[in-house]
Write a structure and sequence with these properties.
By secondary structure, the protein is an alpha/beta fold. The protein has 21 helices and 27 strands. The strands form 6 sheets. A 9-stranded mixed beta sheet has the order 2-1-11-10-12-13-14-15-16, with helices on both faces. The chain has a 5-stranded parallel beta sheet with strand order 4-3-5-6-7, sandwiched between helices. Helix 4 crosses helix 5 and helix 8 packs across helix 9. It starts with 6 loop residues before the first helix and ends with a strand.
């Protein structure tokens, strides 16, 4: 059977193979996990497809989706594809002003919203969206003037079924080059751009991903990364549907730990921040335990990592080490596995660099993380680690059909069926990144090793070039610092300066606990981070993780921040990437004051409240 060429073919192939199964996806409704069968999914997709037609939405129109992950998101996406209407996913965390920009720029004629909260955002900007004709709300409680309920549009489609006897064959007329979606980039360096991805772009990526990921029909996944992001959309939505994997929608990002225990997924996709938090919590618990528990944990960690080194190197495991590993699993790592639900086969990581130390720990613990790499513009996967080809510290081998070259300045360029059509209404911006031969310039710095594994060293635009001409890649350094239990977040700055500095958001819970154990007096969090002993503690913890760096790479001064970076402040993108320029602008006065002070004998620290 030939590989599917469009997302329509992908959907119908999944329905042909799994349509008889009782569960396609589930979500928590009023506190109870509720199943949706393949037949139920197919019926609602058909009803919504025809409902869109009845509303006068035509092929070629654009439909926005402003919603958290839930079955209605998936149903709407498939209905848009069937109707020939490209959808425009919008992060539900975005404020109304940014949503207005996306919907206006994309010329969206209809938008589907999840809740009253999201509906209120649309109502507040609707007068500024001349192309917007329809607002459809998933929750029946989300009502207002000119708002259709999801149920109303479904019923409208069901009633019109007889008028569209050929809707399936018409949907199948979609071509690989037809536009499937417009996904707006996170905008770390300016206004978001609408990435035009075709059926062929995404389908080629799904087929390539399924060829290496080894999904099983007995698998279940937990979906919590935003479906508005192409990583979750391609891997956690289309791949899972075509692979016959049951999709469990987490209630929210805050409930992931509980949802994992309740649903026991075998596959989980995430960004590195989840793994960093789990790792920090495991180390914290070990260090807080009794002397014997601490000793057992670090023995198990050393044993498992020694086992992992041999296993990853394709070497034979000595009998004694294999026995010790079984003991380590039983005493330590079995508890960690239970916290993920007890059935997890593997994690997948993308969206940002993953620390090699953390990847090795999870592999040693029997919870392998398959790290991949890509961008919205590449649908997204360029390369990925998989069980037959796993090399920690790299982002794996190239997907089938994908080409990569490394330019003289280290930039990664790529070409293949997954590369976008271009930026919507932005031919100049498209020409800046897509050359006439079809090579997409990623803006990332990396290298390909002799075995074909790709390694990312940093973002080209993130590279810090000091006044002395030294090049510093900040992301790996930040990852090291963030692995410390006293650090919640960290951003390195210093471009065109004499030396780099680090902005650190302390983990206040751990810092408070430490302060109380030392009988340090503090009235509130602001006074705590101003306490010289607490400041010195955070500095020591940071430097501890950076001892093997070159002298010029180590931050010479540190600015402690009382609050973490947020989407609302504009310092984070919806996918939790830090906008360095915004952070630098928001703390410009404090940063200038820090650089104005003379260097002391060691690292200087300044607090900011």
């Amino acid at each position: 059977m030939p590989d599917p060429q469009t997302l329509i073919e992908l959907y119908f192939a999944a329905m042909d193979q799994f349509g008889h199964r009782p569960v396609a996806m589930r979500s928590k409704v009023n506190g109870v996990w509720t199943d949706l069968s393949y037949a139920g999914l197919a019926e609602q997709v058909e009803a919504l497809t025809l409902g869109f037609r009845e509303l006068g939405i035509k092929p070629g129109d654009h439909i926005g989706i402003l919603s958290e992950n839930r079955p209605e998101w998936a149903i709407t996406d498939y209905a848009c594809l069937m109707a020939g209407s490209a959808d425009v996913p919008v992060y539900p965390t975005l404020p109304a002003k940014q949503i207005e920009y996306i919907l206006r720029d994309s010329e969206t004629v209809a938008v589907c919203v999840s809740t009253t909260t999201q509906l209120q955002k649309i109502q507040s900007i609707r007068k500024n969206l001349p192309a917007l004709r329809h607002v459809i709300a998933f929750d029946s409680s989300a009502t207002g003037e000119g708002v259709h309920t999801f149920g109303y549009v479904l019923e409208k489609g069901r009633s019109a079924g007889a008028r569209y006897p050929n809707w399936k064959s018409e949907a199948r007329q979609a071509k690989p080059d037809d536009l499937a979606t417009i996904i707006y980039t996170s905008g770390t360096t300016g206004d978001p751009k609408g990435v035009m991805l075709t059926h062929g772009n995404i389908t080629s990526n799904v087929v390539g991903g399924l060829n290496v990921l080894q999904l099983r029909e007995t698998d279940e996944c937990l979906s919590f990364l935003p479906l508005s992001h192409i990583f979750e959309r391609m891997a956690g939505h289309y791949c899972m549907m075509r692979g016959g994997v049951i999709i469990n929608y987490a209630q929210s990002i805050d409930t992931v730990s509980n949802d994992m225990i309740e649903r026991s997924p075998s596959v989980v996709l995430s960004v590195p921040r989840l793994y960093e938090k789990i790792y920090a919590r495991v180390l914290d618990n070990a260090l807080a335990g009794s002397a014997i528990k601490k000793q057992i944990f670090f023995w198990a960690k050393r044993t498992a990592e020694a086992w992992a080194d041999l296993k990853l190197g394709g070497k034979e495991i000595p009998g004694g080490l294999a026995f010790k590993k079984r003991v380590a699993d039983r005493l330590v790592f079995s508890k960690l596995k239970q916290r993920t639900g007890g059935k997890l086969r593997f994690f997948v990581s993308g969206g940002a660099p993953l620390s090699a130390d953390i990847a090795k720990f999870f592999y040693a613990a029997g919870l392998p993380i398959l790290e991949g790499y890509g961008l919205t513009e590449t649908s997204p996967v360029i390369s990925v680690n998989y069980f037959e080809a796993l090399r920690i510290g790299t982002v794996g081998k190239l997907l089938s059909g994908v080409e990569v070259r490394i330019l003289p300045d280290g930039e990664i360029v790529t070409r293949g069926p997954n590369v976008m059509k271009g930026y919507f209404k932005k031919p100049e911006a498209t020409a800046e990144v897509l050359d006439p031969d079809g090579w997409f310039h990623t803006g990332d710095i990396g290298e390909l090793d002799a075995d074909g594994f790709l390694k990312i060293t940093d973002r080209k635009k993130d590279l810090i070039v000091t006044a002395g001409g030294k090049n510093i890649a900040p992301q790996p350094i930040e990852s090291r610092v963030k692995a410390n239990k006293f650090v919640a977040n960290a951003v390195m700055l210093g471009d065109k300066r004499k030396f780099p500095i680090m902005l650190i958001v302390p983990n206040l819970d751990n810092l408070k606990e430490w302060a109380r154990s030392r009988d340090l007096n503090f009235v509130d969090e602001k006074s705590l981070i101003a306490n010289p002993m607490a400041v010195e503690k955070v500095e020591r913890e940071m430097v501890k993780n950076l001892r093997d760096l070159a002298h010029f790479e180590i931050p010479r001064k540190v600015l402690l921040l009382q609050r973490d970076f947020t989407i609302e402040s504009g310092e984070l993108t919806p996918t939790m990437k830090v906008k360095r320029r915004v952070v630098e602008k928001n703390y410009q006065a404090e940063i200038e004051a820090l650089y104005a002070e003379p260097l002391g004998g060691g690292h200087d620290l300044v607090t900011e409240g």
